[in-house]
TrEMBL record:
Family classification: Belongs to the ABC transporter superfamily.
Protein name (Swiss-Prot/TrEMBL): ABC-type quaternary amine transporter
UniProt signal peptide: none
EC number: 7.6.2.9
Length: 409
């Protein structure tokens, strides 16, 4: 996460996780699936495990909540020895989200979210209030979604419910195993943005597994590139890994998109977000027109942007209810500059509207701002060795890692 993001962030609620010489050999296997992994996952950070299929990412992650018991080694969570705790209690204190949400099909959305609070014997009114709060937090209208069944939701909505369920009892640690692996790239980008947005407030410790290096760069405060048997090939910030891959195998993961990944490192909140006049649908069109130079944004009752409008649209309008035009693709303050650039290009506009927590209007980012940021980034990296010299180009000696970039298994 950038310095800027840190300064606008909430207090850390996560705790440190330490893996100390942890190994796992599955019954009947001769070689370990995970061999002697030691790493410290700092409190309040997102650490992404990335590596080829079968490298042991899931096994390593599941040993943290003891869905898989380590064969040897020690794990501490917030200073407590995880292996000496009651495994059920431990799991209730760790959020867990998986691909496609992993929802129980016979339970409603509300019942799915309430699973852990119920196990913890919260009273009914507290559970109902928490379910409503969480649905709101993950961008689903509680009135509309609480009583639906998972099959009545889109893939992206299921993933959101999966995240809400993982957050239900406000655990300090979240384990996320390819939680956005089964949705289309646009929804995936949105879900990633929302997770970043949530994390800026929550500052939990999140361990995130993915095959997708771009996703790792976008989400990770740190990335652990894992090789066979979960051997840690490199464990560092995305910036450091992009600039200096530890060896050819890591360079293979980073791939040829390395220079473009730089755009994935900067966030919309790191650049100048400009303001535009705003009004709610119940406000006076004439009064709004008087405040508009170029164009303005109409907000709904929850301050979420719904349409844009200029003075010509407002001329003679009786109300702001139906005037203006839809906004098209929006970005959030947590979106990357790459996302913002894509949104602007997709809409063929000179700017795109930015939303903050819970989809509230935050301002606009313009193409000029993006171009300035890209120039500054280029100037900053002018002294760096060319990409090829830095070893960022996949060369023929690198083992093929065919599925590393595929969005799902
Ligand atoms: N229950 C099991 N019994 C035996 N071997 C297993 C079991 N689960 C996983 N393995 C093996 O352990 C190794 C690591 O698997 P794991 O699922 O942790 O890898 P991964 O990196 O998460 O892979 P993917 O990205 O494909 O999910 C693989 O060789 C796998 O076949």
């Amino acid at each position: 996460m950038t310095e800027n993001a840190q300064s606008s962030a909430g207090a850390v609620s996560g705790v440190e996780i330490v893996l100390d010489h942890v190994s796992k050999t599955y019954p009947g296997q001769k070689t370990p699936a995970v061999a002697d992994v030691s790493m410290t996952i700092p409190a309040g950070e997102i650490v992404v495990f990335v590596g080829p299929s079968g490298s042991g990412k899931t096994t390593t992650m599941r040993m943290i909540n003891r869905l898989i018991e380590p064969t040897t080694g020690k794990i501490t969570i917030g200073g407590k020895d995880a292996l000496s705790l009651d495994a059920n209690k431990l799991r209730q204190s760790i959020g867990y989200a998986i691909q496609q949400g992993g929802l129980f099909p016979h339970m409603t959305v509300a019942q799915n979210i309430a699973v852990v609070p119920k196990l913890l014997k919260w009273d009914r009114s507290r559970i109902t209030a928490r379910v409503t709060e969480l649905l709101d937090l993950v961008g689903l209208d509680p009135d509309q979604f609480a009583d639906r069944y998972p099959r009545q939701l889109s893939g992206g909505q299921q993933q959101r419910v999966g995240v809400a369920r993982a957050l239900a009892a406000d655990p300090p640690v979240l384990l996320m195993d390819e939680p956005f692996g089964a949705v289309d790239p646009i929804t995936r980008g949105l879900l990633q943005d929302e997770l970043m947005q949530l994390q800026a407030e929550m500052r939990k410790t999140i361990v995130f597994v993915t095959h997708d290096f771009g996703e790792a760069v976008k989400l990770g405060d740190r990335i652990a590139v894992l090789g066979e048997q979960s051997r840690i090939l490199q464990y560092d910030t995305p910036e450091a890994i992009l600039a200096n891959p530890a060896n050819d195998t890591v360079a293979g993961f980073v791939g040829q998109g390395a220079s473009l990944q730089q755009l994935n490192l900067m966030r919309v909140r790191d650049v100048d977000i400009e303001d535009r006049p705003t009004a709610h649908e119940g406000d006076s069109p004439a009064e709004f027109a008087a405040r508009i130079d170029d164009w303005g944004v109409i907000l709904d009752a929850r301050d979420r942007p719904i349409r844009w409008t200029d003075r010509a649209h407002l001329d003679g309008a009786a109300s702001l209810k139906n005037v203006g035009l839809p906004l098209g693709e929006l970005v959030t303050t947590a979106s990357t500059l790459q996302d913002a650039l894509e949104a602007i290009l997709a809409e063929r506009n000179a700017s795109t509207v930015v939303t903050g927590p819970r989809g509230r209007y935050a301002g606009v980012v313009t193409i000029e701002t993006l171009i300035d940021a890209i120039r500054a980034m280029r100037d900053q990296h002018r002294g760096d060795p060319p990409i090829a010299e830095a070893g960022l180009v996949v060369n023929s000696t690198v083992e093929p890692v065919a599925d590393v970039d595929s969005p799902s298994r």
